[in-house]
Amino acid sequence: GGSQADFTIPLPPVITFRSGENYSTDSPLYTGTEVKLDYNCSNDKGSTDGAKIYVMRRDEELTNLRRAMSDMGLYMKLVVTDSVTGSKKELTLDENTGNISYVVMRENIVGDAEGTLTFRLDIYRKGDVNPGFYSLPSLNAFKIVPNGSGVEKGINVKVSPVQLQYVPTCFVKASLNTDKVDFGPVLTSDIDSSFSRPRTFSIQASVNNAAGCNIGTLTKPFELVLEGQGTKTVYLHLPLKVAFLINSGGAPSSDNKAIILKNEHNEDNGLQLKISDPDGQFVTFNSESESLPTDSPANKLGEFHDGIFTVNKPYTATLSQAPGKPVKTGKYRTQVTVKVSYY
């Protein structure tokens, strides 16, 4: 026997893959978070035959998911592990109907049994991948069933709503409203702890429609069918980050929040340059890390969402005294590469 309940395998609201990268068909593109379900099962039929615990794939619920994944050149795989036996089984979700639709996780149960099942959903590439996105509602994807009970008993295993996006690396085009921020001459007598000279500039991002960048249907709306609630129009959701990479004319401060400027003799000249966003937060220089938007909110540029595919964010570059640095005369110039990407 088994108790009726619902259990959800959570997925992030949006999963974005970069096309143009050499993903292997053997390793997951995305490895899901493991979630655990404690169970107890009682073989109360009075039989000496051992009972079994099945995990079944509910194909009638998975048609849209498998079709969407197939259109993108992807497929999902459910990995289930039992804590008692150590048994590890896989159920593949693609359009190949020859794949098995259930796995046996426990056998030969006589009397009461308990344990923990661990679930994980991974995403794999199965061939050429096409740029696009697909939004899917919550699905009753699987069911844990004790044998002999039929599908009316057991535990429903749901997959949370998810939007899958496969985006080419060339998708985002960036520009600045100026290619030069001019601070003008600075008198050495003016440089003290109160010295501050701000200049504003802005960074724009839009969709790269150039020939050779296949954007597929990424800018088109997607009609999400909701069970019993009609449809909902959804769009690509793509957050953007900006990296500021120092090329010449200075070195990053110890916390990477400023550029310590140098003169033409490559000597620290007593000035530093910081860049802040409208909230007064300073950007981090010389970082393109995955955690950059979390570690440094000022490096978040904005996002494409709800059919809006343009972002324009103002920044302020401020020249000030570099703490602990002697003032030296000479020309100063620093060159910074501004690099916009999605995450």
TrEMBL record:
UniProt protein name: Fimbrial-type adhesion domain-containing protein
Lineage: Bacteria, Pseudomonadati, Pseudomonadota, Gammaproteobacteria, Enterobacterales
GO cellular component: pilus
GO biological process: cell adhesion
Membrane-traversing stretches: none
Span of domain Fimbrial-type adhesion: 168-342
